[in-house]
Amino acid sequence: MLQKLLSGFILLILSSNVTAHEFWFEPLSFKISADKKLKVHEKVGQDFKGNEYVYLESSYKFLNITEAEKTKSVKSRLGDLPAISEDVSNSGLVIISAETTPSEVTYESWGKFSSFIKKQGLDWVLEKHKARNLPEKNFVESYRRFSKSLIKVDDGKGEDRALGLDFEWVLEDNPYTTDKDSVSAKLLWRGQPHPKSLVTVFNKVGERLIKSKLLTNEEGKVVIPRGEGGVFLINSVQMTEASKEMVEERSAVWDSHWASMTFSF
């Protein structure tokens, strides 16, 4: 009963704010020692500021931790805050990865939908929406989140890798060990490079936020400058027509996919 109440409350919050809000994982510290517990918040918000949410198993299709070459499920319990609290035993790069279960939002006006679509660089959706003769108000969009976070444990050595998420960021440089002034990030859509996708980069340096927009190249890559260092969140959105299953179960006409990654320099 408690899980149903919590789940319903959180889904209500997320559904009402999906058009403007990102979802990401934010460790209490991106750099820890192997004798410390890794604690990570699940956050939803805007401009890299957000609320922290308790763990709900029903919110995730999977929530994993990858340490060395082994990937396993996170052992969180209902109501945990932070949502993730895991022991780590090896020095190296640790990866948190997740896919959320589908949720939906109802657009009561064309203006709200249009604003969201333009903000994410998906203008083609507006033309396609009209070509499909879909209503301009009171229609449903389903959405899922595909999120990763990279954490340094002791020396932080290792490499990020594709973990099979439908929509996934992969850093080609380890920000904790590279001596470069930037890192290359590749965006994958169902395992293939995703070109010409708008990318929002949020960079927190102390209390300051630096926000920029990039576009993936033909290989699905962007280069993210180190700048003054700090903590980074990268985010991109992909839209597809809702599957037959989404239409039947959620009355959705569109299905959005949100890929995010956090790390620090």
Description:
15% of the residues lie in helices and 48% in strands. It is α+β, with helices and mostly antiparallel strands and 265 residues long. The chain has one domain (2-264). A hairpin with a 2-residue loop joins strand 14 (198-205) and strand 15 (208-215). The radius of gyration is 18 Å and the shape is globular. The chain starts with a helix and ends with a strand. Residues 1-20 have low confidence and may be disordered.
Which descriptors would you attach to this protein?
single chain, about 260 residues, alpha+beta, 10-stranded mixed beta sheet, 4-stranded antiparallel beta sheet, 4 helices, 18 strands, about 50% strand, disordered N terminus
What are the SSEs and their pairings?
Elements: H1 2-17, E1 22-27, E2 31-32, E3 37-46, E4 49-53, E5 60-67, E6 70-73, E7 84-87, E8 92-100, E9 103-107, H2 110-119, H3 124-131, E10 139-153, E11 167-171, E12 182-189, E13 192-193, E14 198-205, E15 208-215, E16 221-225, E17 231-241, H4 244-250, E18 252-264
Parallel strand pairs: 2-10, 10-18
Antiparallel strand pairs: 1-3, 3-4, 3-7, 5-6, 5-8, 8-10, 9-10, 11-12, 12-13, 12-16, 14-15, 14-17, 17-18
Task: Quickly describe the structure.
Helices cover 15% and strands 48% of the residues. The protein is α+β, with helices and mostly antiparallel strands.
